[in-house]
Amino acid sequence: MMSSELLKQVMSTAAALFLLTSFAMLAQRHMKALLRWLAIQGGLLAVTSALVAFGAEFPELYVSAILALILKGILIPWVLWKIIIHLGVHREVEPLVNIFATLLIGAGLVLFSFYVSLPIAEQSVLLTSNIIAIGLACVLISMLIMITRSKAITMVVGYLAMENALFFMAVSATYGIPLVVEIGVAFDVLIAGLIFSLFFFQIRKTFDSLNLKDMEIKQ
Fold first, then answer.
1. Backbone dihedral angles phi then psi of residue 151, each to the nearest 5 degrees
2. Rg value, the chain, Cα
3. Which of 192, 117, 134 is nearest to 17 (CA)?
4. Residue 30 lies in a domain
5. C-beta of residue 35 within 8 angstroms of C-beta of residue 81
6. Which one, out of 16, 21, 58, 105, has a CA that is 20 to 30 A from the CA of 139?
7. In which domain, by residue range, is 107 found?
8. Is the Cβ–Cβ distance between 61 and 53 less than 8 Å?
9. What's the structural domain count of the chain?
10. Which of 70, 97, 100, 88 is nearest to 32 (CA)?
11. What DSSP string describes 65-133?
């Protein structure tokens, strides 16, 4: 079992890397690169769960790590990869807000997250304030991805990134959520991914585009 201080340092490093993946996704215009970062983020979740399982001696979190790796790191990004290849969606159109401004907004969200999470962190015996703030920042950045992009599939990636951020916060803040709940959520995310896939194909068939600006009812 790791010492409390060592575990906090490891988790702080994992949180910093997780925030880096969120900013990398925020800066992407190419769909394939966006999905690569989503897969990397899923793999980082798996590593984080495994580290907490080892450091805090919670063996049930090894199951969480395996689920995160299979679903979030491999399966869901692979399904979305196949969709963009089939639909020919390789590049996101120009975002509603330019990339530089989007990154500045993202940095502002990080500062805001540190400000609002400080009172919460002071009451926590498990975490440093950095981990809570970074987890909240990643949730807000994922929402920013959904708001500033015009393609439906990019919004789904933002939704999945937000779910990843919530998962990271749950593992970090409580050293894991109940396994039964986690398995249920994992399958819900998988089913949601399949449903989104069907919607993408139907949207493309109906409107011949995945750009929200082009989704007008045909007369």
1. -85, 140
2. 18
3. 134
4. yes
5. yes
6. 58
7. 4-214
8. yes
9. 1
10. 88
11. HHHIIIIIIIIHHHHHHHHHHHHT--BPPPPSS-HHHHHHHHHHHHHHHHHHHHHHHHT-SS--HHHHH
Tokens coding 217: 């009812």
Task: Report how far residue 82's alpha carbon sits from residue 168's, in angstroms, rounded to the nearest whole number.
Answer: 26
Cα separation, 63 vs 66, whole angstroms: 5
Residue 162 belongs to a domain? yes
Model confidence, pTM: 0.79
Residue 164 in any domain: the answer is yes
Residue-wise burial string across 172-199, b where 16 or more C-beta atoms lie within 10 A, e elsewhere: bbebbbeeeebeebbeebbeebeebbee
Q: Which residues contact 199 (CB under 8 A, 6 or more apart)?
A: 152
Helices (H) and strands (E) in the chain, counts: 8, 0
User: Quick one: pLDDT at residue 106?
Assistant: 94
The single-letter code of the amino acid at 160 is L
Q: Rounded to 5 degrees, what angle do the CA atoms 192, 186, 151 make?
A: 35
Tens-place pLDDT, residues 138-182: 999 999 998 888 777 788 888 889 888 888 887 876 665 555 455
The phi, psi pair for 29, rounded to 5°, reads -115, -25
Q: Which amino acid is at 42?
A: G
